[in-house]
Amino acid sequence: MDYKKKYEEWVNGDSFDQETKDELLAIKDEDEIEDRFYQNLEFGTAGLRGKIGAGTNRMNKYTVGLTTQGFAEAILKRGEDAAKRGVSICYDVRHKSKEFAELTASIFAANGIKVYLYRDINPTPILSYTIRYFKNIAGVMVTASHNPRDYNGYKAYWEEGSQILEDLAKEILDNINDLGGYDKIKKIPFEEGLEKGIIEYIKDEVYESYIQDVLNYTINEDIDKDIKIVYSALNGTGSVPVKDILHRRGFNNIYIVEEQDKPDPDFTTVGYPNPEDPKAFSYAIELGKKHDADLLLATDPDCDRAAIEVRDEEGNYQFLNGNKIGALLINYILEQLSEKGKLPENAVIVKSIVTGDLSKAIAGKYGVEVVETLTGFKNISGKANEYDKTGEKVFLFGYEESIGYTYGDSVRDKDAVNSSMMIAEMAGFYKKKGKSLLDVLNDLYEEYGYYNEELLSIVLDGLDGKEKIERIMKDFRKNPLENIGDMKLVKVIDYLNDDTGNPKSNVLKCFYDDGSWFALRPSGTEPKIKLYIYTKADNFEKSEEKIEDIKKSGQDRIDSVE
Q: pLDDT tens for residues 482-515?
């Protein structure tokens, strides 16, 4: 794309308002102009995600508008009934989220599509639930999840309540490209849509239905409900529903990180609002030590992901990553359902290809199948959608290493409200037996072996970074790491070129003779390349040594790519 030409179109064209033009004209850094216009903010299965600002490579009312018009045309292609079934729209705490949500509603309404809109912020899982509640044809969640404060995003959902897959994303993208310009976007004033009734605010009864549905997944009530839990919403959407669900379950000692409880689009107290990063727990640790809390719990801004820290015997807090939390939940759910005779026949656990294998060992004990999909809950939930149609299997639990989990099939996305309840229940159950979650995890290692993991994320910004990521993937494909320490390569799966039974994806996975493996994958939502490292050994120290060997070999190879 000729970035200068696109820049000139925006500063001189009739389609753009003066505020947008002034923002662009104030930029004196040529690299900044190039970064804003060297590509379109591409729409795909993850929707849109990018920095807020003017330009084709930014989140703004024009890119959101064009995307919504393309989405609307895909809905209209399904006929009058699809338009009547309508869309539900939800948004998080970020800058411009409400404006983008109302703009999206106005465009759908102008295209004759019924709109159900939340009046205030709500989590991503509630949007998924709402689509299923109303039997909508589609939905939109305005969020950038855990990205830094200067980002926003737009997630597109289809009628099952899960994010769209490749075929529909391509159709919408083709519609966007065929529109021919921002002046082709249809819209009516938001207030007019409300007055005409084509836009309707969603009533509280939907939230209440969702909360009751989550409560129905309770397995045990005979647990220690006096367990001390510190909770941080990280200034996001989790504050109301997570506190509500824990209160309704009867947990008596919940301590709230007040500085991070109210919505804050600048995430002033945390900076990078990602509970996958242990630094996000600094306020929670301080409060936890004050109250001798057993468990620290945090959810990300759109409350679809949850992470925890657990107090050890010395009174320090140990961070547990998504693989460990997922394994603990799977062990608890399978163990307890099995004991109660409630484990469904043909139950299935679904995880991503870059998620660890301890869950496979646990599930094998209970005769439960583990199915792997490409990264992203759209693929994990896609399996639940598939089982709905075939009836051959029962979707029990889905998760991925990036601290996203869902228990049951009511929500077709990651659900940190449900997960928070189940983590609290699990912790209370084991505390009554005199065990912490760290104790339980060590028991699992003793039984199944020491599974270990680490994620290395390498940020490579801009056009140069994008091109280097492409060269890195090409280099690893051409020359995989044959030997790492005493580990020998035994198999390579290239999800872009091999016939894996999954859709094509730019992921490379290398397996070694000791059961260890690593995967290399460019991020779909951030300017990063990710190295997922997994090891298995008969003791913790050996598993750590293997992690370091793979990390060094991988980093050295990545650094060597010109």
A: 999 999 999 999 999 998 988 899 999 999 999 9
Res. 451 pLDDT band, cuts 50 70 90: very high
Q: How does strand 295-299 pair with strand 306-311?
A: antiparallel
Cβ atoms of 172 and 74 within 8 Å: the answer is: yes
What ranges in 350-485 are assigned the alpha helix state H? 358-365, 377-390, 416-432, 437-448, 462-478
Q: Residues 145, 239, 352, 410: which is the catalytic one? A: 145
Dihedral sign (CA 326, 332, 334, 335): positive
- At 382, the amino acid letter reads G
Q: Check pLDDT > 90 for residue 119.
A: yes
Structure-token pair, residue 279 = 């630094």
Cβ contact 21:13 at 8 Å: no
For residue 359, the SS3 value is helix
Torsion sign, CA atoms 50, 60, 186, 174: negative
Question: Per the structure block, which two tokens stand in for 239?
Answer: 């504050």
Phi/psi of residue 138, nearest 5 degrees: -160, 180
Say how far residue 120 (Cα) sits from the centre of its chain. 21
- Whether the CA torsion 382, 387, 393, 396 is positive or negative: it is positive
Dist. CA 450–CA 441, nearest whole Å: 10
| pLDDT at 46 > cutoff 90 | no
pLDDT tens-digit map of 203-253: 999 999 999 999 999 999 999 999 999 999 999 999 999 999 999 999 999
CA distance 397 to 128: 16
pLDDT of residue 523: 86
145 in catalytic set = yes
The pLDDT, as a whole number, for residue 22 is 97
* Token couple for 387: 């089982």
Q: Which tokens hold the place of 544? A: 């750590």
SS (H, E, C) 476-513: HHHCCCCEECCEEEEEEEECCCCCCCCCCCCCEEEEEC
Q: By the 8 A CB rule, do 127 and 142 touch?
A: no
Tell me: the pLDDT tens digits for 160-180? 999 999 999 999 999 999 998
Angle between helices 30-37 and 3-12 (to 10 degrees): 90
List beta partners, residue 488: 483
